[in-house]
Amino acid sequence: MTQALLGQMMNSPLLISSLLSSAARHHSKLEIVSRRAEGDIHRYTVVDLQFRAKKLAQALERFHLHPGSRIGTMAWNGYRHLEIYYGVSGSGLVCHTINPRLFPEQIAYIIQHAEDEIIFFDQSFQALVEVLIPLCPNVKKWICLIDPALMQKSEKEIDNYESFIAHESGDYVWPTFDENWASSLCYTSGTTGNPKGALYSHRSTVLHSYASALPDSLSLSATDVILPVVPMFHVNAWGLPYSSLLVGAKLVLPGAKLDGPSIYELLESEKVTFSAAVPTIWAGLIQYIKSQNLSFSTFNRVVIGGSACPPAMMRTLQEYGVEVIHAWGMTELSPIGTVAKLKASDLSKNIHDQEIILQKQGRVIFGVDMRIVDGNLNELAQDGKAFGDLQVKGPWVIQQYFKANESALIDGWFPTGDVSNIDADGNMQITDRSKDVIKSGGEWISSIDLENVAVGHPSVMMAACISVAHPKWDERPLLVIEKKLDLDLSDEALKADILQFFVGKVAKWCIPDDVVFIDKIPLTATGKMQKLKLREQFKNHQLPSL
Length: 546
Ligand code: AMP
What we know:
546 residues, alpha/beta, nine-stranded mixed beta sheet, 29% helix, globular
């Protein structure tokens, strides 16, 4: 075979540091605003960010770490955390974001497994850190992200971030290396078994940033003001700390205060146009703006994912002038895989049909490929009806979990554990996590469909649908409801009303057999409903039909 003719373009590696250096050079006035643990609002420019990220890279150099050494973070969204993102990855080390909402034993397992050498943490996690220190003897330094004057006393040896970087000059050149080097690490918050690490590369992160900014993805631009409410410890805040610098958009980081009033205040005071979070966050914000009779002046787009966005929530936000972009992804996918957007051929459809498309989890963004398969790995039709196991592949999808001995792939595809259908236009709809599907008399009932209907009821705050064993049908759906506060109705009357609410909205045999009320639906560390726990709690629930 004759030798191929190579292109003659520059072979610049796709490095995370280039997102920062490019933004500092071409968007030098770009503001980064943070609500700090110190209690104030901090603001500086991307040039300041780069200066301090370089100081951090210099300070880390003194530790004689190796390329790829892991540096942990347990922190909310803030400018110091952003400096660690860039200073650590930019210098060839790996930024390991740890979810502080997990149990201490799980966190200790993750830190040991990742072999973190230094850990940076927000002061609000100091009590947790004091528990972790004896459990993680291999960590060489624990560094608190707070002004030195506000450091809390501790019997443990804890350093201060500002002091750590104080004496560095910032005169540092980002090193150039292979774009396939690891850049960051995030563990899945597995509800069963030990968490598993997804190890991202510079290349995968930069490609994900490009793709996620596209018009049919999150449609980010230099005119945006971006507020990532999704935490930087949850899949890199869905890539927004990278993609915002890629497009040159102002970044607003909300710190630890994620309640409705605090988020609303930032949306208004910083003129935010775009935000991102799981549905539970928006439920809190909607309740607040409704109760206070407020509106938004600049906020116009929000990406919702992590769990299915209920159509009722989409409609409410739209009434307030906010376009809801429903997206699907996972830790293993950096995270974005699909985004719900219309095609030209959808524009002539009526509003109802358009809404149905936008309520699905959406089309793949270029780079990701997906298919659905049956139990024998036969590919199923993309007709919007057939449903099966969703598999994906692409340059920002993991191939193997960190330190695993074998590939995570089946037949070259990553099995997501989600069950879905895909229509002829490529719109994917998740019907369930495979373990949450309700298998009734040989038919599958989508728990998400039933939850979406339930949260449309005016008295329902949150709804989880789980399966309960049934002697005739194997499993039947039970609806677990968290009510809105201050309702006059008795539980019995409300239950009857909710079940009646399903009539005509789903097939008769899919209507839940029973409704139970609980004070708070338990959430996982990433804000998803803990159905495993609910299934355990209600496994002996007596259905009325028995
Ligand atoms: P995580 O890795 O914690 O981000 O969880 C990924 C899982 O969250 C996916 O495999 C889905 O089960 C679920 N998920 C993410 N986005 C959505 C969505 N838009 N609708 C339904 N489920 C979702």
